[in-house]
Amino acid sequence: MQIQPFSVNDGNGIRTNIFMAGCPLRCKWCSNPEGFEQKERIGWYKKQCIGCGACAAVCPQGIGIDMISDSGNCIACGACADVCPEEARRQMVSVMDADDVIREVHRHRLFYSYSGGGVTFSGGEATSQPELLDCLSRELYDAGYSLDIESCGYFDFERVRPSLERMDLIFMDLKHMDPDVHKEYTGVSNGLILENIAKLGTLPQSPDVVIRIPVIGGVNNSEENIASSAAYVHDVLPSAKMELLPYHRLGMVKYDALGLPFGQDGFYTPDKEEMKKLRSIAAAQGVTITDFR
């Protein structure tokens, strides 16, 4: 989906985030809808479009300026994105060779060295491409990089174990403790996620673990859910920390660019006082609260 250098919110120091497409969840609040599938995608950012027609002139499918009205014919070749003078057309998901990813990471090695940073695998869902994750993590680990991963937690643990064993820090989401509510809002039950959180304790090098709760107003922000989530984490993985992140709508523009319905009007962002209270409720269960923002 993207290789984002100079990130400071997804691990220690300055990091490069590698966003890998494909995700088994369909969270109704997702801010990266382009990463649902492992499929090349072009987005049209209408507010940036000046209507010059350069995109239409090079499109092999004959798609006009209004890409959304004819998006079913788009083959995501990227020709329009290459010629757009305002970056109104963008390649949101592309195919990239592992060697090219590694070369891009090497370009910023100096920043990792001086800041104590490294590389963070994210998505989409990095574990949805286990072979690529294994290749990249092995090569970068052998090159001496600090490695972190952000995951929804829904994956075959043993298949991904070799990659997880190379990580210094693992972020894993816990979106709701009620399996039925979890399925209603994400498309899957939380059973496998809860199992994988517990299995993190079996990794031999004992990486740091941060269990993240994206706090969605109207979904999982009840005091009962936060308390039970923290109690579970403290029970099965006492050394893990927790991070509570307030819901945001930064991905709204991506839905528009892809011609997808936003559908998040029923959610709200908890204010600072509510977040403070929820963090104290989690801490009361014995877990340490952390913040990478």
Keywords:
eight-stranded mixed beta sheet; 10 strands
What's the architecture of the largest domain in CATH terms? Alpha-Beta Barrel
Distance between the termini: 22 Å
Largest sheet: 8 strands, mixed
Question: Helical content, roughly?
Answer: 25-40%
Q: H/E series, N to C?
A: EEEHHEHHEHEHEHHEHEHHE
Give the overall pLDDT as a whole number. 95
Number of strands: 10
- Helix count? 11
- Kindly identify the CATH topology of the largest domain: TIM Barrel
User: For this structure, what is the CATH class of the largest domain?
Assistant: Alpha Beta
Percent strand:
15-25%
Assembly context of the chains: single chain
CATH-assigned homologous superfamily of the largest domain = Aldolase class I
Question: What can you see in these coordinates?
Answer:
With 293 residues, the chain is α/β, with parallel strands linked by helices. It folds into 2 domains: 231 residues, Alpha-Beta Barrel (TIM Barrel), CATH 3.20.20.70; 42 residues, no CATH class. 33% of the residues lie in helices and 18% in strands. The protein contains 11 helices and 10 strands. Helix 3 packs parallel to helix 5, helix 5 runs parallel beside helix 6 and helix 9 runs parallel beside helix 11. The radius of gyration is 20 Å and the shape is globular.
